[in-house]
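Q: How do we represent a protein-ligand complex in a form that can be generated token by token?
A: Start from the inputs.
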Amino acid sequence: MRLVFATHNTHKAIEVQKMVPDAFEIITLTDLNILDEIPETGQTLQANALIKARFIHQKLGYNCFADDTGLEVEALNGEPGVYSARYAGIAKNNEANITKLLNNLSTKENRRARFVTCICLFWLDEMFVFEGELKGTIIHEKIGTNGFGYDPVFVPDGYDITLAQMDLMTKNLISHRGKAFKKMAEFLLENKG
Ligand code: IMP
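Then emit the structure tokens for the protein with inosinic acid bound:
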């Protein structure tokens, strides 16, 4: 059964393919030759995931899903949140985003934070939402070279290493994204009809 992932990120699609039941074939926008960059204009992660999934559902009527992830820092009132990818202004500049985050936290004692992933799934014309979170602490300088985004400054609760020091398999087992996709995979397994 085909399931469209409203993303151009093939790497993410390969990871998700490993998590869902074998009966599902994950197709990306690139596979469908849809080149549109869907504007993420929502004020929340769920709104952005919904915009992306609805775009494909309305255009093609297929079963489809989209995800959106953000880092929410307690002492910064939930920032960068929905703006995580473009916190420093330039889209997906991880270095600049981390520098801005560490600067903004430099005078704060509370360094608690969490990653949240929200998935919107259109399944048989109904919409379903799945969420996963990973709680942890922002450290004072970058450690580790694995992963991406804010991984080098994020130490998950129960660990004394950053996400950027973990191998991908361990990260996927505990991560916000891994947990959200596990919930979607369980739903698909129960409802594949
Ligand atoms: P996206 O919604 O998956 O594209 O994530 C938005 C932004 O959140 C990314 O550009 C990263 O800055 C950050 N982010 C998302 N997931 C992770 C993660 O697993 N580790 C570190 N940063 C992440």
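The radius of gyration is 17 Å. Residues 2-191 form a domain with the Maf protein fold (CATH 3.90.950.10).
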